[in-house]
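Build the 3D complex.
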Amino acid sequence: MDESVDSDDLVIIVENEAESLPAGEEKVKQLGAFGLMDTCPICKLSFHNREPKLLPCLHSFCRRCLPPPLRSAEPRRDPHGPVGSIRCPVCGQECWEIDVLDNFFVKDSAEVPSSTVEKTSQVCMSCDDNTEATGYCVECVEFLCLTCIEAHQRVKFTRDHTIRQKEEMSPEALGVSTQKPVFCDVHKQEPLKLFCETCDRLTCRDCQLLKHKDHNYQFLEDAYRNHKQYLETMTLQLQEKRKAIEEVSSCINSGLQQVEENRKAVTNEIKKSICNLIMEINRKGKILINQLEALTKDHDLALKKQQDDINALTRQLDHVISFTKWATASHSGTALLYCKRLVLLLLGLPVMIILGIDYFFFFFKLI
Ligand SMILES: [Zn+2]
Ligand SMILES: [Zn+2]
Ligand SMILES: [Zn+2]
Ligand SMILES: [Zn+2]
Ligand SMILES: [Zn+2]
Ligand SMILES: [Zn+2]
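Done.
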């Protein structure tokens, strides 16, 4: 009980610290958080050249640090055969082996210098003349030179295609990209430079023409801009939600504090009541003892007085008995007869007194 209270206190303290951080420190903290994104949480090394893998929980690990997949008793049925599951070493969330992606963010940063990136103008993809492209066919997903555009528009099969002029297109779409291309899994030579909106995934030109025929697509850079904006909006919303959650959390914390304060207050009340009760009991006990002492004191005195009386009486009787024995043994008739009346009076007196004592005892027992 006490332990949990302590940890609650700790949470409160930590949160207060976070709130009291000046803006500058906050920034450093954020940079630190981003810094953690490109180092492996297992080996603490930078992901540079270590083939980082991204798990669905958004935690990344070097390929070699990724835990081996668990072959569960009931493996998921997949067209490619049974797959194992991987448990994230950081958050413990489990995912399927095939859902683990390459972390291309880090691959981007482990980039070849931008000077070597091809920045030449786009050439026609339709003919082998190596001439500069002036337009783009949306349906064929191809850059075309002037000649090929004319041919394209003459041929019946492609006459209805939408040709966009090069000037209408974003520079990124024209291939002036600083990013190292990622190649299609199926078409190893084709870079993934399109984004199929219908399937919500990256595609290469061949994919878009075959598997994703008639789907809506965008150039990577255009799609990136749109989706980035969307993600940024979502992030903002999420941050709002986080704030709300933080408020709830602080409510809970203050609730916990309140409960703790109440507990302490009631405990003190109880302790105070116990003290009061003990004091009251002591007071009552003392009164009773005093009453008892007063009562027994009277009784004591009475008994002691009786004892004294009886002792005096005993001495007197002994004296009368001894005198009488002495008087009868003295063989002096004159002397005996002379004081006989006095002796008889004294011999008869004790009987009355004894009767009187009995009566006194009887009387005392009644009290
Ligand atoms: Zn690692
Ligand atoms: Zn994770
Ligand atoms: Zn051409
Ligand atoms: Zn075309
Ligand atoms: Zn492809
Ligand atoms: Zn598609």
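The pocket of zinc ion (ligand 6) is lined by residues 196, 198-199, 212, 215 (CB under 6 Å).
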